[in-house]
Specification:
4-stranded antiparallel sheet; single chain; 247 residues; alpha+beta; 29% helix
């Protein structure tokens, strides 16, 4: 996604219509995670311009996503979507933009500016030559060989290192605001013979980190917002929610 323009999209998916659409397309997650279903639904509504990263808060607060398209551009795409897709995303209402709330988001940030943040992440690492994904805490615990470790501190360090690699900001402070182990649905690539995609459940940490960060590079920070943090950004992880820094 280009960082030349950035908008924050808010929609209010209809839980019942979303569940019905996901069930019809066999996208319901056994553990209740809606990440893959919403990923597919956004692509059904917006095609290759599907907003990403996104964060589904809950049925009451709805879905937030960053996009490079303004309200008019998004509405033009939704107009081509199937009615059940638009209704499931809460975009079937009457009005200029059909139930979407879209506002411009800054792309210029002062270096040194401190901001509060919250982000849902999948704190995993890729191991060695196999590339196998593993919980960052379990990997750290193995290296510690029985030494006492605090899960929250391990994940905060994981975020600190991730920001250093992706660039644009540095961590001032952070804490683990929510943690659970969650299996999320992923589908394999299409097979060459029968063109069938198989789903599998991938277990791992699902965490919300909150705290403060400091902008170190304006352009890189805008790109960080547009692209998201960490892995599985297409499935509901990695969207940085910003707020004024604490006094």
């Amino acid at each position: 996604m280009s960082s030349e323009s950035l908008y924050l999209l808010h929609t209010q998916p209809d839980p019942q219509r979303l569940a019905a659409w996901a069930a019809r397309h066999r996208l319901l997650d056994k553990q209740g995670d809606l990440g893959y279903a919403l990923h597919a639904l956004l692509h059904a509504a917006f095609g290759e311009q599907a907003p990403q990263p996104f964060h589904y808060l809950d049925a009451e607060q709805g879905l937030l996503a960053y996009t490079c398209l303004d309200a008019t551009g998004l509405a033009q795409l939704v107009a081509l979507a199937e009615p059940d897709v638009a209704a499931a995303l809460g975009l079937g209402q009457t009005g200029q933009h059909g139930g979407m709330n879209v506002r411009p988001f800054p792309t210029q940030w002062a270096v040194g500016h401190t901001l509060g943040f919250e982000v849902r992440v999948r704190p995993i690492i890729r191991e060695g030559k196999t590339g196998r994904e593993r919980d960052a805490f379990l990997a750290a615990a193995e290296k510690a060989q029985g030494g006492a470790l605090d899960r929250g501190e391990v994940y905060v360090q994981w975020l600190r290192d991730l920001l250093a690699r992706q660039g644009g900001a540095e961590l001032v402070d952070a804490r683990m605001a929510r943690y659970q182990q969650l299996g999320v649905t992923r589908r394999s690539q299409k097979g060459s013979a029968d063109d069938v995609r198989h789903s599998r459940l991938v277990n791992g940490p699902d965490e919300v980190l909150a705290g403060q960060l400091r902008v170190t590079n304006s352009q890189a920070f805008a790109q960080l917002l547009a692209s998201g943090l960490g892995r599985h950004r297409a499935f509901g992880f990695g969207l940085l929610l910003l707020r004024p820094a604490r006094g």
